[in-house]
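Recap from last week: sequence in, structure out.
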Amino acid sequence: MPPRLAGAALALSILTATPQAPAPDAGTRSPPSFKSLVAALSGSWALAIRYESPREGAPSGQSTGSVRWSTAADGRVLLEDEHLPPGQNDLKLLGLIWWDDKRKALAGLLCSNSSPRTCDPKASLDDIRIDWDGSRLLIEEIEHQRDGSVLLFRESYGEITPRSYVQVGEIGPPGGPVRRVFTIHATRSGD
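Predicted structure tokens:
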């Protein structure tokens, strides 16, 4: 099966699975650290978003959104279903995070209504790195620009409590200075 179709088949099988609450005794092969990530983020969250201006001195923007983190595939996949309506753009994201037994690392796939590389299995394998240390989730993604250059987009989820977390998005050249793009304050809104 071609890689693009294999990725689409994976995404379709995951999307058609019924979202479930975390199942600690589901018999998954995921390590305890993945289960702690699921426990930390599962549920519905209201988002207060502050967008930073790309130009110094220009005003920043604010918006609200929502996200629901749930599991699928017998607790082996963490789904992020996010809706960010910033003004005229209505951004919808579906993120998938799972434990890759072959690579012995977390893996991920991002689907978005605003990305030309949405649900790209090659990008999932080559361009996304995910780390969870038990208190902070870090997602780094290489973004290929039209001019052939690359940028590193970094999302950090920290200050995680049962009721809230802070998500910071930054972008910049790999190994170079980064600039903050947004800060999100998430508050649990119910399950």
